[in-house]
């Protein structure tokens, strides 16, 4: 372990994060809101604190080893979640646990919230929530595309076989720094395009910017309690669907397509085809059920059905209606599809389409082996064979994911949370979805502190890809 190098990296990230607090501080000053002192003091205090810790280790530079990589990922996430909670601690009605929950939800782009009365909150607080999600979304992309493949987490090393061109050796370009810079440019560009589209569709400039941040990050935070239902505009919803679909696609493909002015990365991807099929099937089922059960007019069924299917499928969690009140199995279906989530390398949560695809192909392989025990079958994505080490890693990831889900559901039930709420709350948090069913259909404010802390852990486990967090709990990791 290299603690001084780790401290330098984490404190540098904290210092950079503190700069983001100046944005709501300036907005609060411009609008003469009472939160200006909160954000300004939080920004200055956090910056001074992080610089004070960084200064003694500023010259400690060394190449990070594998174990250091895991520690950087986990420590930086925990540190930023704690730092992000500071301004929320001064929000009336929020406890420390509430503040930590809101911060963790934002930085993991989950979208679960304990804050109510959004329409009456200062705009500086509202934009701060959106900034948290936006930064969290970019962090997810950098982790998924540039860091996790090198750590071989849960099958993410499949990039070595599946990604064409400049990503062949786990990097978009020759160096990780350049890769991250290219992804930032793309991420900012898509956010700007989404904001302009929302504004042209009828949102105010403030709402357009705020919702573009949560749409591209697939976080789901809104500036209104009713989310997209507040606008009640099919054009705005159509814009949201388009950009949620884009954000749910591997950003490495976007980068390569943009850099080479070619659609080939999309055409070659079996994961992308599966992603489209899943969302299309769920949308069709939702529309048919809403129409045949006379829940709403067929036009409205199509409008709300497609939006909710896409939003829940890519784990954005935005809503245009009270979907949890829909009849039959639809609310459960929408929660379950979030387990699939978006493509690997996207801002979406869940298991990721590529893992689910590999699990299904491996299951099919085992069935064929039962029929033809002496035959040799390989698991392929497109025309490329996937190594058994990747398949084993994916199965291990899936098993741990489900074990964590079951344990945390039982923990919530143990403290008196009803089963529907417990099941959907853990599913929504570990999949980084946001809204659940039952008591958490609107917000998580009614849950106790133990339940909220458990769900914070669920968000972090889901966003950090399970292995990178749980590996720190094994004795072997700490042995020299």
Describe this structure as you would to a colleague.
With about 475 residues, this protein is mainly α. It has a domain at about 5-260. Helices cover about 65% and strands about 0% of the residues. The chain contains 21 helices and two strands. Strands 1-2 form a two-stranded antiparallel sheet. A hairpin with a 2-residue loop joins strand 1 (about 380) and strand 2 (about 385). Helix 1 (about 5-20) packs parallel to helix 4 (about 65-85). The termini are close together.
Keywords:
480 residues; 21 helices; 1% strand; mainly alpha; two-stranded antiparallel sheet; 63% helix
Walk me through the topology.
Blueprint: H1 3-20, H2 22-30, H3 36-54, H4 66-84, H5 96-107, H6 123-151, H7 159-162, H8 176-201, H9 205-216, H10 234-247, H11 251-260, H12 264-267, H13 270-292, H14 298-313, H15 330-337, H16 353-371, E1 380-381, E2 384-385, H17 388-414, H18 419-430, H19 449-463, H20 467-470, H21 475-478
Antiparallel strand pairs: 1-2
Helix pairs in contact: 1-3, 1-4, 2-3, 2-6, 4-5, 4-6, 5-6, 5-19, 6-8, 6-9, 8-9, 8-10, 8-11, 10-14, 13-14, 13-15, 16-17, 17-18, 17-19, 18-19
Give the fraction of residues assigned to helices: 55-70%
Strand order of the largest sheet: 1-2
Whole-number radius of gyration?
22 Å
Structural class: mainly alpha
Our estimate of the beta-strand percent is under 5%
Uncertain regions: pLDDT < 50 for 5+ in a row?
154-174
Averaged pLDDT: 87
The count of DSSP E runs of length 2 or more, i.e. the number of strands, is 2
Please give the count of helices.
Answer: 21
Largest sheet: 2 strands, antiparallel
The global form is globular
Element order, helices and strands? HHHHHHHHHHHHHHHHEEHHHHH
Task: Kindly report how far apart the N and C termini lie.
Answer: 8 Å
């Amino acid at each position: 372990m290299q603690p001084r190098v780790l401290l330098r990296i984490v404190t540098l990230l904290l210092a950079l994060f503190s700069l983001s607090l100046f944005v709501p501080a300036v907005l609060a000053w411009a609008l003469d809101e009472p939160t200006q002192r909160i954000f300004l003091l939080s920004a200055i205090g956090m910056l001074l604190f992080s610089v004070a810790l960084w200064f003694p280790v500023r010259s400690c530079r060394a190449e990070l080893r594998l174990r250091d990589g895991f520690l950087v990922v986990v420590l930086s996430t925990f540190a930023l979640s704690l730092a992000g909670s500071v301004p929320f601690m001064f929000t009336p009605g929020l406890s420390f646990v509430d503040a930590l929950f809101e911060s963790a939800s934002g930085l993991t782009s989950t979208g679960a919230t304990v804050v109510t009365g959004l329409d009456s909150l200062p705009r500086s607080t509202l934009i701060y929530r959106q900034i948290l999600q936006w930064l969290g979304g970019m962090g997810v992309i950098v982790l998924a595309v540039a860091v996790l493949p090198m750590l071989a987490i849960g099958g993410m090393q499949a990039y070595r076989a599946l990604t064409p061109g400049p990503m062949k050796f786990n990097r978009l370009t020759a160096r990780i720094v350049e890769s991250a810079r290219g992804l930032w440019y793309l991420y900012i560009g898509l956010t700007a395009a989404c904001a302009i589209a929302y504004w042209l569709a009828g949102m105010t400039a403030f709402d357009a910017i705020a919702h573009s941040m949560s749409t591209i990050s697939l976080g789901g935070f809104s500036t209104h309690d009713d989310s997209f239902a507040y606008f009640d505009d099919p054009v705005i919803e159509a814009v949201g669907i388009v950009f949620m679909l884009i954000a749910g696609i591997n950003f490495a493909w976007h980068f390569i397509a943009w850099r080479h002015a070619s659609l080939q990365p999309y055409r070659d991807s079996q994961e992308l085809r599966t992603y489209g099929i899943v969302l299309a099937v769920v949308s069709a089922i939702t529309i048919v059920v809403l129409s045949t059960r006379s829940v709403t007019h067929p036009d409205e069924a199509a409008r709300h059905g497609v939006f909710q299917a896409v939003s829940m499928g890519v784990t954005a969690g935005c809503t245009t209606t009270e979907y949890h009140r829909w009849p039959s199995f639809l609310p459960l279906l929408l929660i379950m599809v979030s387990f699939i989530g978006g493509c690997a390398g996207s801002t979406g949560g869940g298991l990721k389409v590529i893992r689910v695809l590999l699990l299904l192909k491996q299951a099919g392989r085992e069935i064929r082996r039962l029929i033809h025990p002496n035959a040799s079958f390989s698991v392929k994505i497109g025309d490329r064979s996937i190594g058994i080490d990747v398949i084993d890693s994916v199965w291990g990831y899936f098993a741990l994911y489900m074990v964590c889900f079951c344990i945390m559901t039982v923990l919530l039930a143990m403290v008196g949370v009803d089963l529907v709420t417990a099941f959907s709350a853990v599913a929504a948090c570990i999949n980084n979805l946001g809204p659940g069913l039952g008591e958490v259909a609107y917000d998580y404010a009614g849950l106790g502190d133990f339940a909220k802390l458990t769900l914070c852990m669920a968000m972090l486990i889901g966003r950090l890809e399970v292995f990178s967090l749980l590996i720190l709990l094994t004795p072997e990791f700490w042995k020299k």
